[in-house]
Design brief:
There is one protein chain. By secondary structure, the chain is an alpha+beta fold. The chain is built from 4 helices and 7 strands, in the order E-H-E-E-H-H-E-E-H-E-E. It is elongated and about 55 Å long. The mean pLDDT is 93.
């Protein structure tokens, strides 16, 4: 593609016309990393932390799912989609960094990359919100698309 799909001939914003596209199964997976300072990590018991606001990871998973469903309300030119699959997984890697994976699926005419990216981002922001009482030295980084299938082209990050 040599032009932006969200601009018309005059260079003004437009929603992409997907009316002539075929309905296909479209999947996308995105990740975000959250780096928690030791003072926060010390609060964990097992694989989650419970604060006055509730269990951090379980709340973040629900927030990520809600973010996926609200993507078109947050990003102006995204199409509202009837999401058929949404999985948010949160775990630690070997460096004790929190890794959030959000996988989204839809049978539709447009992809779900933005929904997967939004879900991972909202989950990360929820972790920040729930842990900030212990420290504001929390870093959210490396939000990226890992994989997408369906539509004109597939993508998978190496």
């Amino acid at each position: 593609m040599t032009e932006f799909s969200h601009l018309n001939a005059e260079g003004k914003a437009k929603m992409v016309d997907v009316s002539s596209k075929d309905i296909t199964l479209r999947l996308a997976k995105a990740t975000t990393k959250v780096i928690l300072p030791q003072v926060v990590l010390d609060q964990f018991e097992g694989d989650d932390l419970t604060t006055k606001k509730g269990p951090v990871f379980q709340t973040a998973i629900l927030a990520g799912i809600m973010g996926v469903k609200k993507t078109s309300d947050l990003i102006p030119l995204c199409h509202p989609l009837a999401i058929s699959k949404c999985d948010v997984n949160i775990d630690f890697n070997d460096k004790k960094e929190v890794i959030i994976e959000c996988t989204v699926g839809v049978n539709g005419k447009t992809g779900v990359e933005m929904e997967a990216l939004t879900g991972a981002s909202i989950a990360a922001l929820t972790i920040y919100d729930m842990c900030k009482a212990f420290s504001h030295d929390i870093v959210i980084s490396e939000t990226r698309l890992i994989k997408k299938t369906g539509g004109k082209s597939d993508f998978e990050r190496d």
